[in-house]
Amino acid sequence: MTLNLAPHFYLLPEDGAASATRLDSLALALLLLTGAVALAVLALTIGFAVRYRAGSDADRSNAPGQGRGIEIAWTLTPLLLFLGIYAWAAIDYVKLYQPPADAMPVFVVAKQWMWKAQHRNGRREVGELHLPLGRPVRLVMTSEDVIHSFYVPAFRIKQDVLPGRYTSISFTPSRAGEYHLFCTEFCGTDHALMLGKVVVQPPGEFARWLTEGPRQPGMAQRGYALFRDYGCSGCHAAGSTVHAPSLNGLLGRPVHLADGRELRADEAYVRDAILVPDKDVVAGYAPIMPSFAGKIGEEDLLAIIEYIRETGHADTAERR
Length: 320
Ligand code: HEC
Ligand SMILES: [Cu+2]
Hints:
Elements: E1 4-6, E2 9-10, H1 18-51, H2 68-97, E3 104-111, E4 114-118, E5 124-126, E6 128-132, E7 137-143, E8 148-152, E9 157-161, E10 167-171, E11 177-183, E12 195-201, H3 203-211, H4 219-229, H5 232-236, E13 254-256, E14 262-264, H6 267-275, H7 298-319
Parallel strand pairs: 3-7, 6-12
Antiparallel strand pairs: 1-2, 3-4, 4-5, 7-10, 8-9, 8-11, 11-12, 13-14
Helix pairs in contact: 1-2, 4-7
Bound molecules: heme C (HEC) and copper (II) ion (CU).
């Protein structure tokens, strides 16, 4: 739904994703609700001002001293209405951060002053982000320097992108086309030029685009090589003499930690496991893993995580 009132006047840009349609409905409902309340208050104010103006012959005898019923009504009705709006907005919000299991991960790395993206098959792009129409996507984002913020007005999504950690956001493009991508966190001299383009293509066209361009190894394949080069396999490979957990199918799996906590492994967890191994020690293992902070760059980290994700897929394929 768009709020186009006339061809050259619009309140919001055209919506290009399900997240935008949801937000527009919510914004419209809020506008109608608060507009109706404002109009009702205005009408009553004018009505009473005219009726009880000084010198009018309105009947002023027997003015009620209290009206508990009406006070309860005008307190409870807005309370319930706005709690309803709150619940509605909360559900929409959760959808941005709890993607469906089949959501396609795409990796975004921000740096002064550009947006870089990488797809799982290894295809990279700078200043552009190609996405398939109608498929839920999940962006896993980080920054190489300062805070940036990923903002696509047509999708009504905005997510801070921070150095030293992953943030992610999920949405489903619902209309093919090209959309503006902005950095919306002041990030230095050329912040205003940190622009990009999101290109939403029908699935077939997107699949073709993915395989075009220079041949490169997929992220998981590159990650596998890195996994050996950095010596991870020395401890984590099956048959290693070191007592270290198997990483097969780790992403999405519940993990029990030595301090009793339990969590579900996502990209951020794996990232921290590699860079700050002492933070979350897996139950039943000694904290002997060395930290790789400062040794592995952001893009290599993402590749290693993709390799770990792939081991899970290979696993399930074998079991089937
Ligand atoms: C010296 C052996 C050793 C090396 C080298 C090593 N690890 Fe570990 N790793 C461990 C041990 C032991 C644990 C479990 C204890 C802990 O969580 O610190 C672990 C835990 C992990 C976990 C969490 C596993 C889980 O089940 O939640 C991940 C992810 C991980 N390592 C990835 C890596 C990666 C990637 C590398 C290479 C960059 C690497 N490790 C190198 C020994 C090692
Ligand atoms: Cu920026």
